[in-house]
Each structure stands twice: as C-alpha cells, then as structure tokens.
Specification:
The complex is a heterodimer of chains A (821) and B (114). Chain A has 821 residues and is an alpha/beta fold. Chain A contains 27 helices and 40 strands. The two termini of chain A are 67 Å apart. In chain B, a hairpin with a 7-residue loop joins strand 2 (19-23) and strand 3. Chain B has one helix spanning 105-108; strands spanning 6-11, 19-23, 31-35, 41-45, 59-61, 64-66, 73-75, 91-92, 94-97, 100-104. The longest helix of chain B is centred in the last third of the chain and has 4 residues, at 105-108. The chains are: A alpha/beta (821), B mainly beta (114). Chains A and B meet through helix 19 and strand 39 of A and strand 1, strand 2 and strand 5 of B. Bound molecules: siroheme (SRM), flavin-adenine dinucleotide (FAD), iron/sulfur cluster and FE2/S2 (inorganic) cluster. FE2/S2 (inorganic) cluster binds at residues 48, 50-53, 67, 69-72 of chain B.
C-alpha cells in the first residue's frame, strides 16, 4: 500500500514545524517531500540578526539538520522553487522541470520583503533583510568598508543597523514616521530607544522620506525628499513584508492580503493547506513566529489528530539588540475606556506603560526593564481581572503579588520601612522626613527646606506629600501653592523651566521621561507649554514642534467660526502706505475676502480666506514687502503708536518712530502669551500705553516706561517701572523686560498676572537696579531674536508644509469617484 | 454594476505625522483623515458636533482630537464627544492596505444624493 504523498512548499520555519507536528502525531501517515527555494536546511530566521551581529554562526541557528530529513525519510529538494500548482491533476512543477503529484499540499512560502519603488531601488548594493543571501551581501559590504543606510526604523531595520554597526560600518537609519518602531512602541519609548541608539553612534533620522537611491551602476547614496543626501555603499531596505501569495493566486486559490485559510488552516481547496506568514486568517496576517507555532499545531491536529481549530494569536515583540531592552504587547493606542498607568524612572532609564480597559490589561510597553514583560503578556492573554492589583500593577509581579496593593494609595507609603530612601537626589530616608514633620515641618515647602527631600529633581514630591498626609492626617491640607503644569505631572511650571535648563533637556519626550510624566505623550495643555519652554531655553537649537501648537500657530492665521481664516499683515507702528493698501485691496478681491476690518491693534484684518489659499495670499502680500503680523501667536502682536512730535501739536518725542523701532526689534519673538506694546507721544496717551504689556509715554525730559497692563478680560492699568532719558535706553529696557517675562513666566500667563504674582519690586530689582543683569537679559533677547525673526509666511509661500494647506484628494461621486489632489 | 466597498484615497505618507488632512466630497460633507502618534489612521466627518468646527485643524493627541474652536474633545475611534460634552460625529471606516488608505464608500458618501 502506498502512503499518501504530502508536499510542502517552503523549507522555512512554518513548513518544517508543520512537518514536525505531523510526525509527532503520526510518523507513518505520509510520504513527505519539501521544496525549498533556498540552498539551505531549515534555519531559525529570527537568528539572522545575531548572525549578522557576529554573535552566532550558521551552525548555531540550524533548526533541522540533514540527519533530521534523512531520519524521517523526508525528500528535501533545495534551490528548486515550485513555480506552478495544477489543482486539477494535483501536481506541482518546480523550476528545474521536476513534477510531483500530491495528495495533500501545504503552502509555507513565507513573505517577501517590500521594496520601495524609488528610483535606484535596483542598483547593486541595495539589499533586503530576509534570508542568508541577504546577510551574505551585508557582510561582504561591511568587509569592503564604507557607510550604510538602513531604510526603515522598525524591528528588522534596527536589528540590521545594530549588526552593521558592530561590523564596523557607520550607519544611518531613515525612518518615515516621527518615532522608531511606532507599531510596537509609543512615542516615549520610541524616543528613549532613539537616544540609546544614537549614543551608540548610529545616526537616526525620523520623519525622513526617501526620494531616490543614486549611484553609477552601484549605490553611492540616498537622497531624501527634503534634499538631504547621505552617502552609502550599502542600502538595506527594511520597510515591511508582504505575504508571498504568488503561487496560490496563480493556482486560483482564494487570496486576500494572504492566502485565505479556515480555522484548520485549509485553503479554498480542501487538498491544500497553508501556514505561516503567507496566510490570512480571520482578516489578520502575522509577521512573527509565535502565531505560526500555534497554526502548525492546529494544522497537524486537523490532518492527523483531533481537530482543535486555530483562533488567532496575540503577539508580543522584543527587540534583539544586545543591551537595549524593549518589550511591547497588545494594543496601546488608547481610546475610549482605556486607562494608562505609567511609571518612569529617569535615573535607571526605565519607562513602563500598561494599558488597562475594563479591569483587563490590553497592552504594555516596557523600556529599560522588561523583566515583567512575560507577566503582563500572560495577564493580557488570559484576560485576567486586575481590579485587585490595579494600584500596584505597574510595579511588577513581585510587588503586586506581595499584597502591597491597597485601596488607599498612601497605605503603600505608610507600609515602607523607616530606612527606605525617599529622596534619591539628597539621600533622605523616610525616617528623616517623618522626624521633620513631627518637628513642625507641616508643609511641603517646610519639609523641603529642612530636609532637602524633593527639593532637587522633585520626582519624590508625591511620596513626601503622602508622608505628610499619613503623619498629619486631616491636619495636612494637601494644597500646593503653585499649580502643576497639568494633570500629566506633579511638577510646577517653575520646576519644569528650571530643570530643562539644569538637566539640559532638549526634546519634549526627554522632558517627559526625565521628569516622570504620568502620561505617554502629554496632553493639549502640556505639549504647547513644553514646546515653548524648550524654544525659550535653547534658541537656535530646539526645533519647534508644529504638532504641539494650536491651529492658529500651526497655520499662521486665525481660524474663524466658519472654518475660514483671517490674515493680518504687520503694519509697523500702525503706519501704512498706499502701496501696502493697494496690495491688501488686491488680495481681498483676488481671494474673495468677505470683509476687511481695521482692528483694535491699528492694522487691517482680511477675513474669510480658505486654508488652501493662504500660501498664495501670503506670497502676494510678501511681494509687496509685508510680513506676518502674528495676530495668531503667543508672541508680539502690535505696537500701537500715536502721531507724536512729527505732527501733533502736543507731541514731545517721535512716538511713531520709536514704536516702529520697537516693533522691528521685537517682532517674531515667541512668549508665554501674546504681548502688546504702545508708545504715546505725551501724557494724553492716545495710544493707550497704560493698558499694554509694555507701555511708553513720552515726556519732554525722556520716556516713562510702564509694565503689566491688560485691556482684556480683566482691566488692569500698568505699573510705573522707571523713567529713562534716551530712546536707546527705552529699547534696551523693553528687551530686558520681555526676556525676563519669556524666561520666568508660566506658559499662558499674560504679563499682568505674572507681575502681580512676582511683585513689582522684583521686576524693578531685576530690570532697573541691576544694570548688569539688565544688559545680560537684553543680550539674551537679541540672541534669541537672531533665530526667531524669520517670517513664517515667506517660508510657507515658498512651499514649506504645503500639505497642511492642501486637501488629500477629493471625492466626486459618479461617474468617476476620486480625483487625486 | 457592483461598486467597490472601499475607496482608495491615497498613500499614508501623504498625511502629516500627528495631524490631519481633508477630503472634500462633492455634494456631500467634507471628511477629515487623522494620523495619530502611533501611525494609525482614522476618518471623521470634518464637523464638530458642537458648532461645526473643522476637526481637521485640532490638536491630535492619543486617539482624540481637540476641536480648534471651543476645545471639545472628540474620540477618533467612536466620534463621540468626551468628558462633559455630549454629541457625536459620523465615523468613516478606514483600513490600510499596502501603505494606502482605504475608506468605506457607503459612509463616505452618506448624504450624497444618488
Ligand atoms: C481682530 C481683533 C478685534 C478687532 O476687530 O479689532 C481681535 C480679535 C480677536 N481677539 Fe482680541 N482682537 C483685537 C484686539 C484686542 C485688543 C485691543 C488691543 O490689542 O489694543 C484687546 C485688549 C487689549 C489686551 O489684550 O490687553 C484684545 C483682547 C483679547 C483677549 C483678552 C486678553 C486678556 O488678556 O484678557 C482675547 C482672548 C485671549 O487672547 O485669550 C482676545 C482674542 C481674540 C481672538 C484671537 C479670539 C480668538 O481666539 O479667535 C480674535 C481673533 C480674530 C481674528 O481672527 O483676527 N483678544 N483684543 C483685534 C486684533 C488686533 C490686532 O491687530 O492684532
Ligand atoms: C532578520 C529577521 C529577524 C526576525 N526576528 C524575529 C523575532 O525576533 N521574533 C519573531 O517572532 N519573528 C522574527 N522574525 C520573523 C520570523 O522569522 C518569521 O515570522 C518566520 O520566519 C515566518 O516563517 P514562514 O515559514 O512563514 O516563512 P519563512 O521562514 O520565510 O519560510 C518561507 C520559505 O519558503 C521559501 N519559498 C518561498 N517561495 C517558495 C517556492 N515557490 N518554492 C519553494 N520555496 C519557497 C522561502 O525561500 C523560505 O525559505 C524575523 C525575521 C527576520 C528576517
Ligand atoms: S471681543 Fe470677543 S467677539 Fe470680539 S473679536 Fe474679541 S474675542 Fe472675538
Ligand atoms: S465647534 Fe468644536 S468645540 Fe465648538
């Protein structure tokens, strides 16, 4: 009696595993033939990374050696891919012409690496990272020396980059998304990973879009869409994989993204099964090995055992880069009903985030300490109820199961031993804090000043407050004097600003990590604030994060209730010319503006412009010499003036001229909030200088300067600062005052509440009495202006961020449905 | 004639990271296509349930967009207003295939006279 013939196409991880599972259930059931396109026995593909890195040799990664095939009487055909399947007569044909008849066929053809169709993708020196051949090509390139570019900052790309840099190449990773491994990691973890890889000498460019690979015959470099060029002798494309369904499709099997299979891995033809990365089950395709182990079990159960049925897999990922621990599992995109629990330990470089929904763990991202990855993954897969251990979940298995969790968060603090260190920076134990409280330090500030606990980095503030609450009970009112930036942090604005400078923090995710933010990527309150603080602290260095800005600041125009925009060009000191007026009139007509209005800030506002037309409007205004009036920005708005000594019979000084010079000095400067200035030519004060953030009133003997006025929601007249004799001084004091405000106020504080909080005396001390300090402030202001006085409209009119102004496409229902923009 | 169920509206890399772009529908209502920090794509009618603010111009954080006009927060997943506010904006199903954005035809064309 002849046994039925089982043919497997694909001598890879899934194909061979399926055979192993079948043999384990019934070694005698089939005569088996395996066709492989590669010249090798079955090896562990995931170990290609350590192989590339030089941590393993090929023999170490072989899963099934030749003896295995021989012992199980398996006919292995290598280097001879199957090129056709004839389902009617049940045969397969290989490239060599060999034809075999099957009774049962298993497709295990894996995936193909996706190659970006950019010019030059077929040059010599462009490789993918999928099999031994690819590793061979990379090792040869590394041996020859030169630089490498890896396109794709996902798992594969980073492992390739790691291997190549260990092999001595200078590696640049190009990643199109803003953070690395964005499918597996959130922004915070992606940023930590990037910082760690950069510290190892790799160059990581995020948001980098490849335009072209150039070279004469072979690769010489990569050109990005923004024009940058990176020289390279080797380009590794690791931008994704596609299930390999060619054979299945040609044979007429049902195919979607992968070969369609049912719960028993059977395709639309009852004699043909499929397994591994080439399949699509229940709408999902997989790119990891864990699912294929599960598939292979169900496949063997169905063929030679008791059908069990495959139900899909939940997956987790670890990056195989030695010394960098990254783990991710499940879904951490948040969404309705999801709650984030975040733990950051900056000194140990740890970030952990667990996402809980309806008392079940649905996702986890771990960076730096992945010890509990398996535990979270197990909770996730079992859909275990974590309500009981919710409070301690983030501290890991040992802690959560140790019964430390309790309904009262302070109980955990109370349970700590006396010698446990509360403040790491200053080495203060719990016992010392308790003693200080008992000794009369009953507020946070008092504890800080007598023990120094929480007085440095501040990350233990919550613990100290907990101890105050536990020790004092109801006597502790828990009120903090200064508000925190937002709910994402326990730090105040002042703390954050000080620490950004002290710790030299230069990126939003870095601030969030170092200062223990309790959310993964902040909120719409703290992102704009941090963006501003960084911009102020590191002029010329920090790159503004456009997505952390409110729409008006992102589009450089003011959004109106109907979704159109208003455009306000700068009108220096409220003075205009016939040519400017003509340009404004032309623009208003050309773009069908519905209104032109004189604003309360002495300039013209053009209303009803569509966002698509904004760049063209700016180009037209720019051609007439006009720049953005920043009517939308937390920045200098207007400098209002009166006609002054040039015309007015009471005018004492050239108030119009001074106003223009002040505006030329201060435009473009970003600040905690909007800032308004006015210069009046005499105490009649026609320019309303006494309700501005900075006001100048000219008198015979000089200039009276006043500050902190506000004409808005709460009317506040200015406070008199001092009188100066010359225009130069007026300008310098103005610059110094603005810089002090820029450096010390809280984001979204106008000058009025800020001056009231810190007191007029303080401002006088800094600006009037301390001549040296004033000069330093003035100098810092000018230094930052060197970078900020850059007309955003001109940049946009020249094409910067053009996508923000264009529709993605337009749908025109029937007869044609879509028109690409 | 059978119309396809999904409309291909272009490659994902045409979306700004963490932001949105718009897709006008002739005779229907404009759609906003959002891109989250994680790289997921969602589509909503580009109209806040409060006073029809253009949601495409809001700040995107997590799977939420904050309306640029009066700061309502709208879930990109369900279209529901979050927090104290009440209201809901139509969600258009999206899927990504081979780097391209596909949106559900029926939902995209809802309200267009046949
Ligand atoms: C256009 C204009 C009204 C007008 O038609 O005159 C105006 C229009 C707006 N003002 Fe104003 N303010 C305008 C002069 C003023 C003035 C008068 C002045 O500057 O001399 C004040 C009082 C002075 C002051 O600020 O101290 C003023 C106090 C406010 C306030 C309250 C600020 C406060 O600190 O209390 C807001 C709300 C805010 O900024 O948060 C505001 C906000 C706004 C916004 C931006 C509301 C918004 O968020 O959409 C309006 C934008 C309309 C637009 O699309 O341009 N506007 N606003 C004026 C533009 C001046 C310019 O040329 O840039
Ligand atoms: C560098 C690297 C690192 C990885 N790291 C991890 C990791 O850390 N964790 C993880 O879970 N996964 C990892 N993976 C993914 C994992 O290797 C795959 O999920 C797994 O190999 C898929 O198995 P498969 O059998 O479906 O495909 P493959 O292992 O690719 O096997 C398919 C085989 O079929 C052959 N074939 C194709 N067409 C034909 C044909 N017509 N005729 C004959 N033979 C054909 C191919 O040559 C190939 O040998 C990694 C992958 C790579 C490339
Ligand atoms: S006063 Fe109120 S309504 Fe008038 S422009 Fe200012 S914000 Fe708008
Ligand atoms: S229109 Fe969106 S919040 Fe008012």
């Amino acid at each position: 009696m002849t046994k039925p013939h089982l043919i497997v196409i694909g001598n890879g991880m899934a194909g061979c595993r399926a055979v192993e599972e079948i043999l384990a259930r019934d070694p005698a059931r089939y005569r088996i033939t395996i066709f492989g396109a590669e010249p090798h026995v079955n090896y562990n593909r995931i170990m290609l990374s350590p192989l590339l890195a030089g941590e393993k040799a090929f023999d170490d990664i072989v899963i099934n050696d030749l003896a295995w095939y021989a012992d199980n009487a398996i006919d292995l055909v290598t280097s001879d891919p199957v090129v056709a399947i004839d389902r009617d007569i049940q045969t397969v044909t290989a490239r060599s012409g060999r034809v075999e008849r099957y009774d049962t066929l298993i497709l295990a053809t894996g995936s193909d690496p996706f190659i970006l169709p950019v010019p030059g993708h077929d040059l010599e020196g462009v490789v993918s990272f999928r099999d031994m051949d690819d590793v061979g090509a990379m090792l040869r390139a590394a041996h020859a020396g030169g630089d490498a570019v890896v396109i794709g900052g996902g798992l594969l790309g980073l492992e390739a980059a790691h291997g190549l840099s260990l092999r001595g190449m200078k590696v640049t990773v190009l990643h199109i998304m803003p953070t690395l491994m964005e499918r597996q990691l959130d922004e915070a973890a992606g940023w930590l990973l990037k910082a760690a890889l950069e510290a190892r000498g790799q160059t990581i460019l995020t948001g980098a879009e490849t335009a072209e690979i150039y070279g004469q015959g072979k690769v010489e470099g990569v050109r990005l869409k923004d024009g940058r060029e990176i020289r390279a002798a080797l380009v590794v494309m690791a931008v994704g994989i596609r299930p390999n369904v060619r054979l299945a499709r040609a044979a007429g099997l049902a195919v979607g993204r992968g070969v369609h299979v049912d719960d028993h891995l059977v395709t639309s033809d009852a004699n043909i099964l499929a397994v591994g990365e080439c399949v699509e089950h229940d709408g999902l395709v997989y790119g990891l090995v864990a699912p294929l182990w599960e598939m292979c079990r169900s496949l063997a159960d169905a063929l030679v055992g008791t059908p069990s049925g495959y139900r899909g897999s939940v997956t987790s990922t670890k990056l195989k880069v030695s010394g960098i621990d990254v783990f991710s599992a499940g879904d951490f995109s948040g969404g309705a009903g999801c709650e984030d629990i975040v733990l950051r330990d900056a000194s140990r470089g740890v970030y952990k985030r667990v996402v809980v929904k309806d008392d079940r763990v649905v996702g986890a991202v771990l960076y730096g300490d992945t010890q509990d990855g398996a535990w979270y993954f197990d909770l996730l897969r079992r859909e275990a109820d974590v309500a009981e251990i919710r409070d301690a979940l983030i501290f890991g298995q040992a802690f959560a199961n140790g019964g430390a969790a309790s309904a009262n968060p302070n109980a955990a603090v109370a349970a700590l031993a006396d010698d446990v260190e509360i403040c790491g920076c200053n080495g203060v134990s719990k016992g010392k804090v308790i003693a200080a409280i008992a000794g009369g330090a009953v507020t946070l500030d008092a504890v800080r000043s007598c023990t120094k606990a929480s007085a440095s980095c501040g990350s233990c503030t919550g613990l100290v407050e907990g101890l105050l609450a536990v020790t004092l009970g109801d006597a502790f009112d828990g009120e903090r004097t200064a508000p925190t930036v937002c709910k994402c942090t326990s730090f105040t604005h002042e703390d954050v600003r000080r620490l950004i400078v002290e710790k030299r923090l230069k990126a939003i995710p870095q601030v969030m990590q170092e200062l223990h933010w309790s959310t993964p990527d902040g909120c719409s309150s703290c992102r704009p604030a941090l963006n501003y603080y960084l911009l102020c602290a590191w002029p010329g260095e920090f790159v503004d994060d456009n997505q952390s800005r409110f729409v008006n600041e992102r589009l450089h125009a003011n959004i109106q209730k109907d979704g159109t925009y208003s455009v306000v060009p700068r009108m220096w000191g409220g003075v205009t010319t016939p040519a400017e007026l003509r340009a404004i009139a032309d623009v208003a007509e050309k773009y069908a503006a519905r209104m032109v209005k004189v604003t309360g800030g002495q300039r013209l506002d053009i209303f009803g412009i569509r966002k698509e037309d904004l760049p063209a409007v700016w180009a037209d205004l720019g051609a007439a010499g006009m720049v953005s009036g920043h009517a939308y920005a937390k920045a200098l708005r207007t400098v209002k003036t009166c006609v002054g000594s040039e015309w007015c019979r009471f005018g004492t000084q050239d108030s119009t001229g001074l106003g223009i010079r002040i505006e030329q000095m201060t435009w473009g400067s970003f600040m905690p909030h909007k800032f308004k200035i006015a210069v009046s030519g005499c105490p009649r004060n026609c320019a309303e200088a006494t309700i501005k953030d900075f006001g100048v009133i000219c008198v015979e003997s000089g200039y009276e300067l006043s500050i902190g006025g506000n004409g808005g929601i709460k009317l506040r007249g200015t406070d008199f600062l001092c009188k100066v004799a010359t225009e130069r001084e007026a300008l310098d004091y103005c610059a110094a005052f603005i810089q002090l405000y820029r450096e010390e106020a809280r984001y979204l504080d106008r000058t009025a509440p800020w001056v009231e909080r810190v007191g007029l005396d303080y401002i006088k001390r800094r600006i009037v009495e301390d001549a040296q300090g004033r000069a330093a402030l003035t100098a810092r202001f000018h230094q930052s202006q060197a970078f900020l006085q850059d007309d955003p409209w001109a940049r946009r009119a020249a094409g910067e961020d053009h996508k923000l102004h264009q529709h993605l496409a337009e749908i025109r229902p029937a007869p044609r449905t879509l028109e690409m923009a | 004639m059978m119309l396809p169920e999904w409309l291909d509206i272009g490659p994902v890399d045409q979306l700004p990271a963490l932001g949105a772009r718009t897709l006008p529908v002739r005779g229907g209502r404009e759609i906003a296509i959002f891109h989250t920090a994680k790289g997921e794509v969602y589509a909503l009618a580009n109209q806040c349930p409060h006073k029809a603010g253009p949601l495409s111009q809001g700040i995107v954080h997590d799977t939420t967009v904050t309306c640029p006009l009066h700061n309502w927060r709208i879930s990109l997943v369900t279209g529901e207003a979050l927090g104290e506010d009440k209201g809901c904006v139509p969600v258009i199903p999206v899927k990504i295939d081979g780097g391209r954005i596909l949106i559900g035809r029926a939902a995209a064309l809802a309200g267009v006279a046949a």
